[in-house]
Write a structure and sequence with these properties.
Layout: E1 11-14, E2 17-20, E3 25-26, E4 37-44, E5 52-55, E6 64-69, H1 75-90, E7 102-108, E8 113-118, E9 123-125, E10 136-137, H2 142-147, E11 155-161, E12 166-169, E13 172-175, H3 179-189, E14 194-200, H4 206-219, E15 224-232
Parallel strand pairs: 3-7, 4-6, 6-7, 9-15, 11-14, 14-15
Antiparallel strand pairs: 1-2, 4-5, 7-8, 10-11, 11-12, 12-13
Length: 233
């Protein structure tokens, strides 16, 4: 059964109260249909101490999870709830489905419908001290080697995203439109390939986070890989 209508409805009724969730926007999503799903909602709610409200009543462990995060939330607000959901599925002991995945639900403006961004294997690392980030040659972890079979690059490149429009690489502060050209130049130096580590400012909105992830995902290739760990500073 197509699951196209579930999240077109952006209002959820609970205890006779209407709550509105604003989905982040994305262009040209790689995934536009997911079957056998359960939804979770992370609302923007100013009445709560952390301005968030998690609704996960209808989650079924064996299904694909569609996590709907209000685009107005910051990463500092949203990530703890996202990690809670990830742990719930990863730590399930009964009726576990190894093929079930997790997706963020978005509004794909290129098709006027839903788009999805997978984050099943992403591990969020919070409270990172940004002054510890530096260039170094570092073989990827065994976890990443299993995920990206046959990739031989050894150069790990930290990308530090300060806001939705700028990022730092080495000692350079660049705009997002320069990301592709910068990676192309690094590829000429590291001709065996490069491995990207992503660092996100905790004050980024979830909309900014989704936009950055879609941009970086579109640039990955056989010679450009992305770390499964994502660092929040």
């Amino acid at each position: 059964m197509r699951y196209i209508y579930l999240l077109i409805i952006l209002s959820l009724f609970s205890c006779n109260n209407e709550r509105t969730l604003q989905l982040p926007e994305i262009k040209n999503a790689e995934v536009t249909e997911v079957l056998d799903v359960s939804p979770a909602y992370i609302f923007y709610d100013e009445s709560q101490p952390d301005s968030t409200l998690l609704n996960r009543k209808n989650l079924i462990i064996t299904t694909n999870w569609l996590v709907n995060v209000d685009k107005r939330l910051t990463l500092q607000q949203a990530i703890p709830h996202i990690k809670f959901l990830q742990d719930k599925k990863r730590n399930a002991e009964m009726h576990k489905n190894e093929d079930a995945k997790n997706y963020f639900t978005c509004h794909d403006t290129s098709i006027g419908n839903l788009g999805f961004l997978e984050f099943t294997d992403v591990v969020f690392k919070e409270n990172i001290k940004i002054d510890t980030v530096y260039y170094k040659d570092n073989m990827r972890t065994e976890e990443n080697l299993k995920r990206i079979e046959g990739f031989h690059a050894s150069s790990t490149i930290p990308l530090i995203f300060k806001d939705g429009h700028h990022f730092e690489i080495g000692e350079q502060n660049l705009i997002m439109d320069e990301l592709k050209n910068k990676l192309d130049k690094l590829m000429k130096i590291n001709f065996n390939g490069i491995h990207l580590q992503l660092y996100f400012n905790k004050n980024l909105s979830f909309q900014e986070y989704i936009s950055i992830k879609r941009k970086v995902n579109s640039l990955t290739s056989d010679l450009i890989s992305m770390d499964l760990n994502e660092f929040i500073y």
